[in-house]
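It is worth pausing here to work through a concrete case rather than discussing structure prediction in the abstract. The textbook approach is simple: state the sequence, then state the predicted structure, then interpret. We follow exactly that order.
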Amino acid sequence: MLELVTPSTDVLRRRDTSRPKSAQLSVPLDFTTLYDTWLEEVTSWLQTLGAPPADIEDLAQEVFLVVRRRLCDFDGRNVAGWLYRISSRQVLQHRRRSWIQSVFTLGSGKDIEEVPDSRAGVEEAFEVQEKRHRLKQIVGKMSEKRRVAFMLFEVEDYTGEEIADMLDVPVNTVWTRLYHARKDFFALLAQQAESRREVT
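Step two, the predicted structure:
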């Protein structure tokens, strides 16, 4: 009969009885082992959480980028819960970015100058200009610090660490600004939609 290694302070024992017995082994709490052991599970969670199939692989990598960054602060308890929460946040952020990009960009990767000069193309170009104008109006009402963090992260697709380097601030400051900027954005968007309804 196979004996499991007695856990020490640097070893995490997973005891999820719903998982295959082969996965219920002692797992050293280091990044490489976490990645190798949990990648398949994280990928499954991302699918369950409704991530677009084409983006699941990229999202899984983003999850483990967060894991690598935060592993030094993790206490080693409830790895499954920790990874699931990170996965859930990544899917939520992905949805927000996709929604914002679909609302305020062409979505096809084209510049306005590249849109064909047909009636449909002209209408599409006008719609894009209108969406960009709406974005400019909304973010123009945010504080400068929140607006910069929001635009760099949500529209320009920089990482939190890259923004922190650019602005010469701690990365936690970037996340705080983004948190408040998102709240501002959705509140201002709702106000704008209400104003449009009142006009019509």
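Step three, interpretation. The chain has a mean pLDDT of 75. The domain at 1-104 is CATH 1.10.1740.10 (Rna Polymerase Sigma Factor; Chain: A).
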